[in-house]
Design brief:
Elements: H1 6-10, H2 28-40, H3 44-50, E1 52-55, E2 60-61, E3 68-69, H4 71-80, E4 85-87, H5 96-111, E5 120-123, H6 141-147, H7 150-166, E6 171-172, H8 196-211, E7 224-228, H9 247-254, H10 256-263, E8 268-271, E9 275-276, E10 279-280, H11 285-295, E11 301-303, H12 311-314, H13 322-332, E12 337-338, H14 344-354, H15 360-376, H16 396-409, E13 411-415, E14 428-431, H17 438-442, H18 464-472, E15 477-480, H19 491-499, E16 503-509, H20 527-537, E17 543-548, H21 556-559, E18 564-567, H22 575-583, E19 597-598, E20 617-619, E21 630-636, E22 641-642, E23 648-656, E24 662-672, E25 683-692, E26 697-704, E27 711-712, E28 718-719, E29 723-729, E30 732-738
Parallel strand pairs: 1-4, 1-12, 4-5, 5-6, 7-8, 8-11, 14-15, 14-16, 16-17, 17-18, 22-30
Antiparallel strand pairs: 2-3, 9-10, 13-18, 19-20, 21-23, 23-26, 24-25, 24-29, 27-28, 29-30
Helix pairs in contact: 2-15, 3-14, 3-15, 6-16, 7-8, 7-16, 8-10, 13-14, 16-22, 18-22, 19-20
Bound molecules: beta-D-glucopyranose (2 copies).
Length: 739
């Protein structure tokens, strides 16, 4: 296999794993020197302790809000074993005061250990601080990607970081940089969609928002890029099942977001629970050492995923015993094991070291990285940093930001005859399983892991039904359940109610889920919901579909029956309001699909497929309508002939030719007409979100470089071939020849 510098993946940019030190703070070398000095004083057992991560259940009794720290369990973990890290909640989110008590007890125990090394607490803040009760819940990452607005992603991540650190938690297992190219996968909603450049841009923005300039600040947290790499492409569509990804494809599509976020200074990486080409992520020394460290220049902490060293035995069968699995994983490059529910890892690693199967120098590498992270986070100065930051949890400003994000994400997929926006005085039937559900708006990782306990959702923000009713009043808003997610309830009643309404709004989609429990065997929207739409269509009234879903559930059978279709994704807690704002035209929709919306169950093809791969999408990647119209003109690509390696300046004019203000996402695609490996029909190279007043025109300029015309060749290296390239923006195209 070839080794190549990170710069190749990104085209001419050098890998810089650490941001320059701001004034007064120690630089990376100084931090490492300090970490080594601390490590020098550690026993082998203490080093192994640092590499061990346990879940909160290991130091507590009870669950949910009845969880109580158990002092003797805590002492065993933090003092006897000296564990370096603890994670998670036991079922439900805690109020800040509860977190302060939990973290206070943990850090007090750590102070009583021989070297008083603070514990690094980690949490999944996936769309806001979803495990801190009362925190702001933003749209899920797939919805954020639909905004095509990295600046907004940076802002929402900044708030998520501050609200997480307020609880005393300095480490966030986010962003997910797995490129979402398998729509069946239950974690698609956690991704930034199917395009590698869009995912990279959003991922970099998330890292910047989480970590800021100084990750040790009381309002910042360390980011964790996950799940390195290839997790998101299971052939079966089920979570944690095998992927087959040729190295050229891995480099073309799956590695670049990780490379970009590492270059932006991300401090930690979590490993893929699945296997790629027969090699489990946790035993893949090539990817973890040669590529991640060698090529991408990553210097931070690599943490395993949940129980994944054990799963080398139980799921992947590459080791007969957990001891052998531990040896493989540590030698492959894991720094910290998310064990997380027993002491097998420290016990077995100790045996391996005593037997000489793992050198102490290997532990030292990992311990240095872990201690350096704790130093950088400021935990040695103040293990509870952040708890007194004064951040206002779920402030009015943060909620406004979440509302803005939800509004920007919603994507108008169909609007026949200008059915939307609805007139302010409509009589509306609201129906369907997601109409009155906050859990569906939020999806998984919301107050609980599965996010499916409706009764836990704060009721001060409306569901879709609630927001429509608040606007129209109870007499103009009719609600009939119609169908549950998988079962018919009262289709005939829904159809009858539709007949006496001006318009029916059917809110469809998915119940909340996370990870493996979200597995499905059919991407088609469940039969009961299709039958609901068919019953409503029989009423011969205008029909709007609102899709609240983490995956593009196939709607081919009913798409024609609807006059308008809104994709809401999982817009978060402000999503009910945002959907109503778009339906009634207070907000002009501007979201664009970050995924292909497939039409047929057996044609799950990404937008950047080779020409010979034929598939028709229901709605294409990048698509999304507006209540105004945008017209493109003057696509200029001078000079028509450029030399390879020269910069290419492209420009285009976009005009708001309608009567409403609106935002457009200008997307520039490149297609190689001929290449030595079959080229994709097109590839996104640049995008820009612009807001235009009615009648306003804007010229946009894009500077392209060699990497925009190159691809990963059969030797796994980027190559730039001469030839003709077609540049496309909107409905315009212009050819360019590179010599
Ligand atoms: C998930 C990770 C998550 C971890 C900790 C795992 O099951 O795959 O994404 O960060 O658990 O909750
Ligand atoms: C964690 C998940 C994990 C699961 C396993 C949850 O509490 O957050 O990440 O996969 O437990 O049961």
């Amino acid at each position: 296999m070839n080794r190549l510098p990170a710069s190749f993946l990104l085209g001419g940019l050098t890998a810089l794993a650490w941001l320059p030190a701001a004034a007064g703070r120690p630089g990376p070398d100084e931090v490492l020197t300090r970490a080594r000095a601390r490590r020098d004083r550690m026993t082998v057992a203490e080093k192994i302790g640092q590499m061990t991560q346990l879940e909160i259940g290991m130091i507590s009794d009870g669950k949910d809000q009845d969880l109580r720290i158990n002092e003797s369990k805590l002492r065993k973990a933090v003092v006897e074993y000296g564990v370096g890290s603890i994670l998670n909640v036991f079922e439900t989110a805690y109020p800040v005061s509860r977190w302060h008590e939990i973290l206070g007890r943990i850090q007090a125990a750590a102070r009583g250990s021989r070297l008083a090394v603070p514990v690094l607490y980690g949490i999944d803040t996936i769309h806001g601080a979803n495990y801190v009760a009362g925190a702001t819940l933003f749209p899920q990452p797939l919805a954020m990607a639909a905004t095509w607005d990295p600046g907004l992603m940076r802002e929402t991540s900044r708030v998520a970081a501050a609200e997480t650190r307020l609880a005393g938690i300095p480490w966030n297992f986010s962003p997910i940089l797995d490129v979402g190219r398998q729509p069946l996968w239950s974690r698609l909603f956690e991704t930034f969609g199917e395009d590698t450049r869009l995912a990279a841009a959003m991922g970099v923005a998330a890292v910047e928002g989480y970590q800021g300039e100084d990750v040790g600040s009381p309002i910042r947290v360390a980011a964790c890029l996950k799940h390195y790499v290839g997790y998101s492409f299971p052939a079966s569509g089920h979570d944690r099942t095998p992927a087959l990804i040729p190295e050229v494809t891995l480099r073309e599509h799956f590695l670049p977001p990780f490379a970009a976020a590492i270059k932006a200074g991300a401090r930690t990486v979590m490993v893929n629970s699945g296997e790629v080409n027969g090699v489990p992520g946790h035993a893949n020394g090539f990817l973890l050492r040669d590529v991640l460290r060698g090529e991408l220049g990553f210097q931070g902490v690599v943490v395993s995923d949940w129980e994944d060293i054990k799963r080398l035995v139980t799921a992947h069968h590459v080791a007969a015993t957990e001891k052998e699995a531990t040896r493989q994983a540590i030698l492959a490059g894991i720094d910290m094991s998310m064990v997380p529910s027993d002491y097998s890892f420290p016990d077995l690693l100790r045996q391996l070291v005593d037997e000489g199967a793992i050198p102490v120098s290997r532990l030292d590498e990992s311990v240095d990285r872990i201690l350096a992270l704790k130093l950088e986070l400021g935990l040695f100065d103040d293990a509870l940093r952040g708890t007194e930051s004064g951040t206002e949890l779920g402030s009015a400003d943060s909620r406004r930001l979440a509302l803005r994000a939800a509004r920007e994400s919603i994507t108008l997929l169909k609007n026949e005859g200008g059915l939307l926006p609805l007139p302010a005085r409509s009589r509306v039937l609201v129906t369907g399983p997601t109409a009155d559900s906050r859990a569906a708006l939020n999806n998984g990782w919301s107050l609980t892991w599965q996010g499916d306990r409706e009764s836990l959702s704060p009721t001060d923000r409306p569901t879709i039904l609630g927001a429509i009713r608040a606007r129209l009043g109870p007499s103009a808003t009719r609600y009939v359940a119609g169908a549950a997610f998988d079962d018919e309830i009262d289709l005939a009643a829904a159809a009858a109610a539709a007949r006496s309404a001006d318009v029916a709004v059917a809110c469809l989609g998915e119940r909340a889920y996370a990870e493996t429990p979200g597995n499905i065997d059919d991407l088609t929207l469940p039969e009961a919901q299709l039958r609901l739409v068919e019953a409503l269509a029989g009423a011969k009234r205008p029909l709007v579909l609102v899709l609240v879903e983490g995956r593009p559930r196939i709607i081919r059978r009913v798409a024609g029956a609807a006059g308008a279709i809104l994709m809401a994704y999982n817009p978060g807690l402000e999503g009910g309001q945002a959907v109503a704002d778009v339906l009634f035209g207070d907000v002009n929709p501007s979201g664009k699909l970050p995924i292909t919306y497939p039409r047929d169950p057996h044609a799950l093809v990404n937008y950047d497929h080779p020409a010979s791969e034929t598939a028709v999408a229901q709605f294409e990647f990048g698509f999304g309508l507006s209540y105004t119209t945008f017209t493109y003109s003057d696509l200029r690509v001078p000079p028509r002939t450029a030399r390879r390696g020269d910069g290419v300046e492209a420009s285009v004019v976009v005009h708001n030719s309608g009567r409403r203000a609106g935002a457009e996402v200008v997307q520039l695609y490149v297609s190689a007409l001929v290449a030595s490996l079959t080229p994709p029909v097109k590839r996104l190279v640049r995008f820009d979100r612009v807001e235009l007043a009615p009648g306003e025109r804007r010229e946009l300029r894009f500077s392209l470089g060699g990497e925009d015309f190159s691809f990963i060749g059969p030797d796994n290296r980027p190559r730039l071939e001469p030839g003709t390239f077609r540049l496309r923006v909107g409905d315009l195209a212009q050819d360019l020849t590179l010599e």
